[in-house]
Amino acid sequence: xxxxxxxxxxxxxxxxxxxxxxxxxxxxxxxxxxxxxxxxxxxxxxxxxxxxxxxxxxxxxxxxxxxxxxxxxxxxxxxxxxxxxxxxxxxxxxxxxxxxxxxxxxxxxxxxxxxxxxxxxxxxxxxxxxxxxxxxxxxxxxxxxxxxxxxxxxxxxxxxxxxxxxxxxxxxx
Length: 173
Prior knowledge:
alpha/beta
């Protein structure tokens, strides 16, 4: 969740090498099938370094017959004026990630959440459909898409209820 820490890892060849070695070591020494990376905050300026990292990690995992899974923020278009994690969503190019990973897990929850001004569904169905359609549209193989859903709820007694979440979803790609 800390872009500054990720920057320190990605922009230092020594830190990056050590980070990859540690991931590979944890996976192999514990007999895991692979790793699920859930890095939730990036600076847009780190996009190139992020994909260099992902490519190197993917290569090393595959050479050890291990899987790479990446968990990403929800995206449902390229022209969306996202209100949160704008730089992170710019870095998380679903197509490139899916080319390097075995699975793309998309966090399809918190459309309305703790930080929203209005109450509403955690994961409106039409929003989830748009996330999936967008992912397929940009070239993510269907078999690599995994949708993460939140199985929790919020106390909405402190804010007004949204009339229709479908009216506020911008579906332009």
